[in-house]
Write a structure and sequence with these properties.
Elements: H1 5-15, H2 26-39, H3 42-58, H4 86-94, H5 100-115, H6 119-122, E1 130-131, E2 134-138, E3 145-149, H7 152-163, H8 171-184, E4 190-195, E5 198-203, H9 211-223, H10 228-235, H11 240-246, H12 256-262
Antiparallel strand pairs: 1-2, 2-3, 4-5
Helix pairs in contact: 1-3, 2-3, 5-7, 5-8, 5-9, 9-10, 10-11
């Protein structure tokens, strides 16, 4: 074990808002996993998550630490930050689901994509969260208040989700369903991934997960012209730095003057 492993782990725990054992839950562990995988090399990410898995097993503050084993075990899977474009979200929405579990996953994913709310918050939304055309809530994870405009379509999705929470699948099943729906939607643009230190190309639907939809909200909002600070407020982030990590845009947001200068050659 590297001597600085504890310091590295603490840095990433703090980055995703985990400061005490009570902050540990499936959603926060998913956030941590994404954060670690996106900022560390595959080998370092594996060591860091393995270290946390060991700590969870040793403490008496966490009930059933084995429940997090799969999320904290990297076996060459891709950890690339992925988002869906507006066109891909429309295609995802149009897919005909088969059964209640697929429909609730589809609906909740779309709510995440169009509100920026974490899944843990989406699962609590009801009519009391609507005030004068806005969705207002305080994040369970960060305790940060967020208020954003809410369309009637999104309000309908929230009403559906509220009525069908008994159909919620496990996280593993949720991501499997998401990838099936994304494949059916034709979200298959080739993307580069790194597995076991080897770079390869894979269809985009294979690397989409529940976390991708919240990233989609932030990325598409900024791509539409919103500032990082506006996106921070809408997503309920604790800092602009966190918002910047959620943005998946590969191209810089240059001014028209900067573009004109570069393209004059």
């Amino acid at each position: 074990m590297r001597p600085d492993a504890a310091l590295i782990l603490r840095k990433h725990l703090t980055a995703v808002g985990i400061t005490e054992w009570d902050d540990i839950n499936t959603e926060s562990i998913c956030d941590l996993r994404d954060e670690v995988c996106e900022t560390l090399s595959p080998g370092s990410a594996k060591v860091t998550l393995s270290y946390l898995k060991t700590l969870l097993r040793r403490t008496e503050a966490i009930d059933n630490p084995e429940a997090y084993d799969k999320l904290l075990t990297l076996k060459g899977d891709n950890c690339r930050a992925t988002y869906l474009t507006s066109e891909e979200l429309a295609a995802f929405e149009s897919v005909q689901t088969r059964g209640a579990k697929e429909r609730i996953v589809q609906v909740e994913s779309l709510i995440e994509a169009y509100t920026g709310a974490r899944l843990s918050d989406v699962m609590t939304f009801d009519e009391t969260n609507f005030v004068d055309g806005y969705l207002t809530y305080t994040s369970i994870k960060t305790h940060v208040a967020a208020t954003i405009p809410c369309s009637e379509k999104t309000r309908g999705w929230i009403a559906y989700a509220q009525e069908h929470r008994a159909d919620e699948p496990s996280l593993v099943a949720r991501n499997r369903i998401i990838r099936r729906l994304a494949e059916l939607a034709g979200i298959d643009t080739p993307v580069k991934t790194r597995r076991g230190g080897v770079e390869s190309v894979t269809p985009k639907y294979e690397v989409i997960s529940s976390h991708s939809f919240r990233r989609s909200f932030v990325t598409n909002l900024i791509a539409s012209g919103a500032s990082f600070n506006d996106a921070k407020v809408c997503a309920g982030h604790t800092s602009v730095a966190m918002t910047e990590r959620y943005c998946c845009l590969n191209k810089p947001n240059l001014s028209s003057e900067a573009m004109a200068y570069i393209m004059q050659v």
